[in-house]
Amino acid sequence: MTVLATAPARTRRSTFFPNLRRPLYPAIKSESVDPVRNPYAPGAGQRPPELAGRDRELQQFEVVLERVARGRPERSMVVTGLRGVGKTVLLNTFKSMAMQRLWGTGKIEARPDQSIRRPVAAALHMAIRELAPRHRAPERIEEFLGVLKAFAMRDPAAAKGTSHWSPGIEVPASRGRADSGDLEIDLTELFVDAASVATDLAVGIALFIDEMQDVQAADVSALCAACHELSQTGGPLIVVGAGLPHLPSVLSASKSYSERLFRYARIDKLDREAADLALILPAREEDVEFTQEALDALYEAADGYPYFVQAYGKVAWDLAPRSPITLDDVKVSAPEAEEELAVGFFGSRYERATPAERDYMHAMAQIGDEPVPTSDVADALGRKPSSLSPARDSLIKKGLIYSAERGLIAFTVPHFGKFLRAQPV
Ligand SMILES: Nc1ncnc2c1ncn2[C@@H]1O[C@H](COP(=O)(O)OP(=O)(O)OP(=O)(O)O)[C@@H](O)[C@H]1O
Ligand SMILES: [Mg+2]
């Protein structure tokens, strides 16, 4: 039996309770894998205890930040990948990196039924609030806030009755800038002004957009145009996105030059080494180890998908009586982890589909786990492809499936086909 993780010399526990440790811990047999100290974190956007296997993306973003700050031409980044692969977590890490460089940052989560105007205004407000205390000329900040307010107030939804957007901007809205009502013009002007405030401080501004595939078509186009304009003037403001694998095609359908605006980083499941590190390193912090066989079994179950790594790791930890966590512990805990995934990860998404959409997905699952031709789905259901378009389109809108390439369709959720095949039709 090989034990991979070795205990560090000094533990946190002994630092905090030097007097308690010796007499009590040997007496409490299950202490070594204490559920209270379980480090694993399955959940949407939950910061993992160890961000494994993303060094390349972090380095790339480091370069982006550095180049933008120096006014060098640079494409911004867009992270894409399947559900639960770690896009939100990576975006949040990028945000922290920008904040460490004293950049102003703001983040939005796009929704299919909402214009980005107000969320962008709120996010840039946050970014400017981060910069304001360090700015020597308060009137520059006030001037920008006036423009920001005018921009936000042009929201079409704001025109009817509830016209007052009150984000805590005390200054009066200015006139004649970023308030034309045309989002493309307004965003461009707003970005240029925000970038100019950041330039005063020799920093930049980063606007993060999660679930970017859900930005409405007209807004995508305006956003790309504004980024394009900004990239030409060299203003230090970048839009960093994250979304499902078809996001690049959403962007290029809107503006053909989008490939030149964004560097796409497709993130995928973790390789064996990274998946092991994601489990071992947090455990080592708590003096807990895994046997090699346990790691083999965990990799086989989780298949390297970050969400699954956290989910299986968490239950194995909770059920293991002592360190090291063994193959038996993993075997005993796997059904419980699967049950939790079936409810929380797969079930919650399945619930969102209508009966017709479920039929469509079951047909997909029966055909196989690779992207499947839409015509095969129609054949399997004995229907005309055109009659299935509504179900397919709304599944895409709900983010459950995506069009991998023309005529092909795939699940956005890893292992979803397997889950569906285990469900009664
Ligand atoms: N690099 C990583 N190493 C270990 N665990 C990770 C890593 N990235 C993400 N995770 C874990 O995976 C889970 C999913 O992460 P996250 O919510 O960021 O995924 P996502 O791609 O945004 O999913 P969705 O498409 O559903 O929004 C979280 O529990 C997180 O802790
Ligand atoms: Mg996410």
TrEMBL record:
Pfam families assigned: AAA_16
Region (Disordered): 35-55
Key words of the record: Heme, Iron, Metal-binding
Protein name, entry field: AAA ATPase domain-containing protein
Record bears the keyword Ribonucleoprotein: no
Domain Cytochrome c: 199-350
Stored PANTHER family: ATPASE DOMAIN-CONTAINING PROTEIN, DNA-BINDING PROTEIN-RELATED
Native source organism of the sequence: Nonomuraea jiangxiensis
InterPro entries per the UniProt record, alphabetical: AAA_16 (IPR041664), Cyt_c-like_dom (IPR009056), P-loop_NTPase (IPR027417)
MF GO annotations: electron transfer activity; heme binding; metal ion binding
